[in-house]
Amino acid sequence: MTPAPNTRVCSRWSATPCPETEGLRRYTNGYFCPAHAPGTVAPPLPVPDANRLKAAALAYAARGWHVFPITPGGRVSAVTDWPNRATATDTARIARCWEHRPYNIGIACGPSGLVVVDLDMPKSEDDKPKDEWAGEQVSCGADVLAVLAQRAGEPYPDHTFTVTTQAGGTHLYFAAPDGVALPSTSGKHGWKLDTRANGGYVIAAGSVRNNRPYTVTRDVPVAPLPDWLLAALRPATVARRRVPTPVLRDTSRYATVAFENECANVENAPDGTRGVTLLRAARALGRFVASGDLPRAMVEDALREKGAAAGMEDARSVPIIRSALNWSIANNQRRGAA
């Protein structure tokens, strides 16, 4: 059947689910795999490219880096729950995945023990530095990092594994320090300077976007994160407080234990992991809301309070809780209806 104009059409329709991805949405005439972008059907990349990407993914896994598939030619994860799906040890699954389709390669920084400094290029002539950086002679993220190094009295930290991105930017790979959970940041430390650590990922060399590749431009061992960068990236110590967990009545023991455990997880989440922990807690409890075991208002209030106890502001925690509950409730209701 020919789709109507402007209809969103998946590039892979099948009577069975895609073997390497999850989060499939059931349609009347087959399964839609989120790894295959809707829209105009593009021809697959040649098999040699698929083999090249598979070899690269396996090579990164051999380094101990946790890899997962990114949509072919894109930058979005092709699997749900990528922080837990990424692997450095299941080489058979990695091989099957990249034999199935020439996915770009994602590296989950936190599980891989990496901190990647992402130095971007301006996106247009109007993309210029603002605020404190407007008075500096900087034209890109690399210039900003050079200024930060100069202010710290340290050399430019580029003697480490380095990747040039498809847009001409730079990824500097560093080994994360033991016992410190560094968060990912976006522009917090300077114009066109982001960091990818816990909760973040990077597109690995070998991947291609807009017909331009990510390439390794300095293939040397990953250097330890410099002390001065660690000091800049380390999150401020948050004053924590304890709040009582609401007492549940007229609900199952299973739901009660899950509620108490997830509240404790959020309240005790280490720095740099609070947002991810809150997201997982809300998704876990959403299925009990969908089943009628827990009232949604109580779950929202309890998670917000526990997030505040861990140092999260309501402006950040409330949207995470609501979106995660919406997702979990919708998905669990859909499974129950099926």
Give an overview of the whole structure.
The protein is an alpha+beta fold and 338 residues long. Among the domains are: 113-233, 2-Layer Sandwich (Prim-pol fold); 253-337, no CATH class. Helices cover 37% and strands 15% of the residues. The chain has 10 helices and 15 strands. The chain has helices spanning 47-62, 82-85, 91-100, 109-112, 141-152, 227-233, 253-267, 274-291, 296-309, 314-337, and strands at 13-14, 25-27, 30-32, 66-70, 104-108, 114-119, 162-164, 170-175, 185-186, 193-196, 201-203, 208-209, 212-213, 215-218, 223-224. The strands form 4 sheets. Strands 6, 7, 8, 9, 10, 14 and 15 form a 7-stranded mixed β-sheet that branches. Strands 1-3-2 form a 3-stranded antiparallel β-sheet, with no helix packed on it. A 3-stranded antiparallel β-sheet has the order 4-5-11. A hairpin with a 2-residue loop joins strand 12 and strand 13 (212-213). The longest helix is centred in the C-terminal third of the chain and has 24 residues, at 314-337. The protein is globular. The model is unreliable at 1-48 and 334-338 (pLDDT under 50).
- The count of helical stretches stands at 10
The coarse silhouette is globular
Mean pLDDT: 82
- Describe the main β-sheet briefly: 7 strands, mixed
Domain DNA primase/polymerase bifunctional N-terminal: 57-229
Protein name: Bifunctional DNA primase/polymerase
Pfam family, one: Prim-Pol
